[in-house]
Amino acid sequence: MNKTVFLTDYAWPDDSVEREVIEGAGFRLVTGPSDPLPATGIEDLVREHRPHAIMTCWAQVSGEAIAAAPDLRIVARLGVGLDNISVSTATSRNIVVTNVPDYCVEEVSDHAVGFALAWTRGLVHFDREVRAGRWAPASAKLRRLSELTVGIIGFGRIARATARKLAAFQCELLAHDPYVMKSEAGIEFTSLDDLLARSDIAVVHSPLTDSTHRLINRDRLGKMKPGGLLINVSRGGIVDTEAVVEALQSGHLSAAALDVLESEPTVPGELLEQPGALISPHVAFSSDASLIELRRRAAEEVVRVLRGEAPRNPCNPIAR
Ligand code: NAD
What we know:
The longest helix has 19 residues, at about 290-305. The chain is elongated. It is of the alpha/beta class. It is built from 12 helices and 12 strands. It folds into 2 domains: about 5-105 and about 290-320, NAD(P)-binding Rossmann-like Domain (Rossmann fold); about 105-280, Rossmann fold, CATH 3.40.50.720. Strands 8-7-6-9-10-11-12 form a 7-stranded parallel β-sheet, sandwiched between helices. Strands 2-1-3-4-5 form a 5-stranded parallel β-sheet. Helices cover about 35% and strands about 15% of the residues. Strand 9, helix 9 and strand 10 form a beta-alpha-beta unit. The mean pLDDT is about 95. It has helices spanning about 15-25, 40-50, 65, 85-90, 105-120, 125-130, 155-165, 190-200, 220-225, 240-250, 270, 290-305; strands at about 5, 30, 55, 75, 95-100, 150-155, 170-175, 185-190, 200-205, 230, 255-260, 275-280. It binds nicotinamide-adenine-dinucleotide. Nicotinamide-adenine-dinucleotide (NAD) binds near residues 80, 108, 159 and 180.
């Protein structure tokens, strides 16, 4: 019998790229609905199809789902973060977990820089004003990016690209990362509190883990330089949205540019009411080029593992 690959969900119009790679290698592809089912729905589909491989975009692949597939060999994330996969269960059952770590480094870093420029140049603000019938250049309170300090929280792949791009704007760069060697030309590594106190713009680029869950909470927002911008292009769970709304309401924060929300896809009404909130619907990773690369590379990992070859981007230690 053909080995079965289960694609739990997808954030693009169809499953054609995945199908071409999986079926082209002689395997069978079963696809769930494009919008992710709840964890229990995924568990039911896994029980029904008993897949040899699971590919997931946003759907939760729980420990129960993994345990319900006796022949499972790989869980492949169509993305970077692994917070929707029970990696510990996969590891304990010798199932490899893969991601595609670098397919959208340029896109996410562009998004962060884009948010910074949208704020310094008032791009979103003035677009809203003009559409509302107000042509008021004298109201402009814009900023010179080259004279600002930008603090980057988490200094991995995407953060390095953001720093490289921001360096061209000649702003002062700070970084905080407990796991990164503290030497990088033009970047001052410092504590999180010092970074927040000195940065006009703070950018979250760390992953969502137990230690970063609500890392940016009421207390930390209070430590931010007054009138600053918070950018989160990483994971919603790192930032306490209610605390952001309060900081915007009080004027302590000038703006919050959020590609990700704890509550996504639900956007709290109080956040929408804030003129300082710039929100995009978790699309920082997306471009025509990045999506094709992501889908093809994730499916190719599945094919490799089902053929008994080593994956290129294993994320957990398993005995082979
Ligand atoms: P990476 O693993 O290369 O870098 C993450 C960095 O965060 C690492 O250097 C790590 O040491 C650091 N870190 C870990 N815990 C930290 C903490 N407590 N405080 C500060 N830093 C900490 O990952 P990456 O490729 O740069 O991606 C970063 C994150 O971006 C991913 O985990 C993912 O959640 C998110 N992401 C979002 C989108 C999007 O569309 N919005 C797309 C891709 C990735």
